[in-house]
Amino acid sequence: MIQVKVAGTEWWYDEMPSPCPLCHHAIDARFLTGVVRQNNPMGTVVELVFQCPRNKCLQAFIGYYDGQYDRNLNAPVLFLRASAPFTPIPPTHPKDVAALSAQFRRDLRRGDGGRSARAEAGGRVRVSQGRGVPDQGFLCEGEPG
Questions:
Q1: Is position 51 within any domain?
Q2: Which of 56, 67, 63, 69 has its CA nearest to residue 24?
Q3: Are 75 and 136 contained in the same domain?
Q4: pLDDT confidence of 98, banded at 50, 70, 90?
Q5: Would the pLDDT of 67 be above 60?
């Protein structure tokens, strides 16, 4: 348990956000400040502001905590619920897949149903139940029947 002082009250929390929600590296986040959003007998909502310690990131983010009074510690205890902002890691694809997918999308916008993309791939391309999504579904050969 880690102890911080927010709004004149000592709070204990179970964990710091890790990994960093922006650069996705495992970190020991730096506590900056916090704010109590709701404090009543039925539950507490506290937002703690942290900073990523990595020199390439150094971004600030918020850890959202729910809490309650713990009789054993004789103090309020907070439990990490989420962190924000969150930047998802973009998926990576091999260059040939990315090129085929781009061509397939262009063909679908042109209205030829992806036929030229199928021709460039030697008549073999993945489609999703006939909707023309090249990265999921089942394998079709040649022209759809």
A1: yes
A2: 56
A3: no
A4: low
A5: yes
As a 3-state breakdown, the chain gives helix, strand, coil percent values, each rounded to 5, of 15, 40, 45
47 within 8 A of 67, measured Cβ to Cβ: no
pLDDT tens string 105-117: 676 666 655 555 5
The SS3 call for residue 23 is coil
- Among 56, 84, 112, the domain boundary falls at 84
Task: Decide if 50 contacts 31 (C-beta within 8 A).
Answer: yes
pLDDT exceeds 50 at position 137: no
Residue at which a domain ends, from 84, 105, 131: 84
Strands, DSSP E only, in the chain? 2-6, 9-13, 30-40, 43-51, 60-70, 75-84, 124-127, 138-141
